[in-house]
Amino acid sequence: MKKFVSVVIMLAMAVSMLAGCGKKEGSEAIKIGSIGPTTGDYAQYGLAVENALKMAAAEINALGGLQFEVLGEDDQGDPTMAVNAYNREMEQGMQVLLGTVTSGACAAVAAEAYNERVFLLTPSASNPAVNEGKDNVYQVCFTDPNQGASAALTIKNLDLGKKVAIIWNNAQDYSTSIYQSFIAKAAEIGLDVVVKDATFSDDSNADFSVQLQKAADAGADLVFLPIYYTPVAAIMQQAKAAGYSFKFFGVDGMDGLLSIDGFDTSLAEGSYMLTPFDANKADELTKSFVTNYKAKYGDVPNQFAADAYDAMYIFYAACKELGFTSETSAKDICEKMIPWMQKYSYSGLTGNNMVWGKDGCVSKAATAYVIRNGQYASVE
Amino acid sequence: MSAFMSNLLSGVSLGSVYAIIALGYTMVYGIAKMLNFAHGDVIMIGAYICFTMMFNLNMPAFLGVLIAMAVCTLLGVTIERLAYKPLRQATSLSVLITAIGMSYFLQNLAQLIWGANPKSFKSVIPNGSISLMNGSLKISYTTIVTIVASVLIMVALTMFVNHTKMGKAMRCVSEDRGAAQLMGVNVDLTITITFAIGSALAAIAAVLMCSAYPTLKPTTGSMPGIKAFTAAVFGGIGSIPGAMLGGILLGVIEIFGKAYISSELGDALVFTVLILVLLVKPTGLLGKKVHEKV
Predict the structure, then answer these.
(1) Mean pLDDT, each 10-residue run in order, chain A (380 residues)
(2) What region, left, alpha or beta, does residue A353 occupy, with left being phi > 0 and alpha being psi -120 to 50 degrees?
(3) Do A26 and A57 touch, CB atoms closer than 8 A?
(4) Are the beta carbons of B191 and B32 closer than 8 angstroms?
């Protein structure tokens, strides 16, 4: 046994030496940081971002010009771990950070990146706290307030429900800030919100019987779900099992629902959602992205992957226009990126003609979809 | 009234899931005197195996459940042999830490095999419900099956422990491992069989849990695992009827807490109960008081 262990240790050491050699060869590449939860409860989002960043980098590298190297670190969605991951990537010579994935962790890392002048373009951290008061933090995804207000307007304009119940995760920045902007807008336009306290505090929560019961008791006809798709799936299944017939309305976090293995898509039939990305869209870019992603990682990419893919190509465009190389310092990249982003307009997977304000927030159209026959369909 | 009844039923249904998991905890603790924190993750593996059999290989549900039970039993015994047996003489702290390590190992293994994206478990129990009180109260088949299954398992386990030769050996090992060995009881075999039974139960718990709450992720087992552990302590760890009682009470407390106090306090209440019980009655509701011999 001991001999076996020592052989294993020897092999591991030999392999790590080889790995060390491999890194030196790639020193010509621009080092791009990526931080996200690749293990634990939020792994499906962190992996989507890291996979898409690596895929986009591989595509760009294959063109033969600029070379990108993606430094991937796991933060499990935790702010402390994210800052540690950030420091490790800084030591490895990170020049720009395309992360982090979750809002809470991103706000912590953004504070560091602001002090050290590292440009940060997050694919998916949508909370306003991420870029508040920081001139070097930009988002590819919508901001949360933006989504909550559009959701309320869409429900009112399309007359989808008279009495709205909201089931939301009050321990999550994402869900909470969409909730807040939703009820603010609803009060303004006279949309009747009958249940506000149907909360839960953990996305791996399994039991939603109480929250659904509250909605039913209050006579709600529409349930607004400003949450990610995993709890959405559980809510729809339990609503069906308990015999409720609510109409559901989700936001961009609901994207991914239809590609859950084993999910009965008939449960989502007639549900509405706002999302910038539709994996079934027929345009060339979406098609090739989805096909390649599926071939490489075996899953249909969700909105997180699409945001990350866009982030990489936005940075690629910047590199070409501003002439960044592996020698350019993170500070220089940061100072040049800030004015450039405000003038740049990008069309990609998650929106056409996306432009950015001084605050780092993106403006792009949120499209409302309705789920018909297991696919997104236009609401018109 | 009907809202109260339907909350009560949700509580009992959730509680019976906790109860079946708690039975596994309590068996292993009672006999091997160790907390197997990887139990929740064996459940998760069981659910994935059953999912793969049914969804990817299109097997009928009962076959999927049987295979999941077989794989879990094998897994439980392997874990015991590889990770816990070498530590039989070590302090309980090292065993506990090994169990926590095993739990993380299984979670990450599952993520490697099945990926981090959630799966949606297809219920093995037909969808539908019985209407009572003029249709204002609905009891789903899943709830009924879960409750019946947990009672049956509890009765069968009690019979097994009290009326078979292996059960007697288990009680001996539980009472005094050294003396049992001197009397010719094969302690290692007894503990292995305990793990085998505990893990087979885990597979059943997995199928019932995922039929009621279908989201399946590598971390699916951890929270129910911790709550079931709470239930086992609540009912008196080591006691089989105690695990059952603790599980059901805990489920009801959680649902009532969510419904009538605050939906964010459900989990907090569960763990408050644990603290209170430990303060007032450290051995749990049905636990026996054992005097430590000095």
Answers:
(1) 65 58 59 92 89 96 93 92 95 94 92 94 91 92 87 91 93 89 93 91 81 90 92 90 89 85 89 87 91 91 93 95 93 94 93 90 85 83
(2) left
(3) no
(4) yes
- Our count of domains for chain B comes to 1
Establish if B274 belongs to a structural domain: no
Q: Please, what is the Cα angle at A207 between B248 and A253, to 5 degrees?
A: 165
Nearest to A334 by CA among A125, A121, A131, A126: A121
Per-residue CA distances from B145 to A268, B120, B156, B220 (Å): 26, 20, 16, 21
The CATH number given to A28-142+285-363 is: 3.40.50.2300
- Cα–Cα distance for residue pair B216/B252, rounded to 1 Å: 23
DSSP state for residue B82 in the 8-state scheme: I
Identify whether B91 is part of a domain. yes
What is the C-alpha to C-alpha distance for residues A67 and A58, in angstroms, rounded to an integer?
9
Q: Is residue B160 part of a domain?
A: yes
Q: Give the 3-state secondary structure of residue A34.
A: strand
Residue of B nearest to A260 (CA): B119
Size of interface A-B (CB pairs under 8 A): 120
Question: Best mutation site among B258, B261, B262 for testing chain A: the one with the most A CBs within 10 Å?
Answer: B258
Q: B62 is written with which tokens?
A: 């009962």
Which among B3, B107, B213 has the least Cβ separation from residue A217? Answer: B3
Query: Which residues of chain A are in CATH 3.40.50.2300 domains?
Result: 28-142+285-363, 145-275
Q: Measure the CA angle with vertex B266, ends B150 and B262; round to 5°.
A: 140
Amino acid at B190: T
Q: How many angstroms separate the CA of residue A48 from the nearest CA in chain B? A: 9
Q: What is the CATH number of domain A145-275?
A: 3.40.50.2300
DSSP-assigned states of every residue in A273-304: EEES--TT--SHHHHHHHHHHHHHHSS---HH
What phi and psi, each to the nearest 5 degrees, are found at residue B14?
-65, -40
Tell me whether residue B2 is in a domain.
Answer: no
- In angstroms, the separation between the Cα of residue B166 and the nearest Cα of chain A is 32
Query: How far B54 CA sits from the closest chain A CA (Å)?
Result: 10
Domain that holds residue B46: 19-117+138-221
Q: How far apart are the first and last CA of chain A?
A: 68
